[in-house]
Amino acid sequence: YFVANIYQAQWPKYESERNKWFKLSAKNGFPKAQSRLAELYFFEFLVSKNPKFISETIKWHGKAAEQGDSNSQYELGKLYSRGKHVLQDFDEAKNLYLKAAMQGHKEAQFEIGNMYSLGNGVSRDLNKARKWFLKSVENGSSSPQLQLGLMNYYGVGIPENMEKAFYWFDLVKKWNARAQIYLTQMYATGL
Fold it and tell me: For the chain, how many helices (H) and strands (E)?
């Protein structure tokens, strides 16, 4: 795995050497190599659209996820949640997201929050959604900040709080057009 990462730093010049070492490490049961190999197969699938690469992606993410690799748990959770290349299965997505989230995976925490916010595969629970969104932010994710702003703006699951809504929208205004629209409305109406 470590040798593969050395070759990765010089990609694409040593792509075949990198792939060889990732495959060897993955076959020897190293979860980080299995996860990385799955990502490489997924990239090949996106380029070629060859379904054999997606089955290899799922296989290697599955092996890494079984060994507790949070990235593979999250990536498989995404596939099951969205029903992309596998049958949609919210229960499996939730289980995988939770395993990754409990290890501090910030995007898995965000996805669990989304599931509770929308009621996808779970009973809709806005308190749990907010809890997971906040955990995700605490771990460095900016993804849930818009949702937290909207929850405060509209009083969804919590009392309406324009100061907190402004705070969350302001954090994401540089890259999120919806946050910019809400901030503009807030400035225009004096909220």
Answer: 11, 0
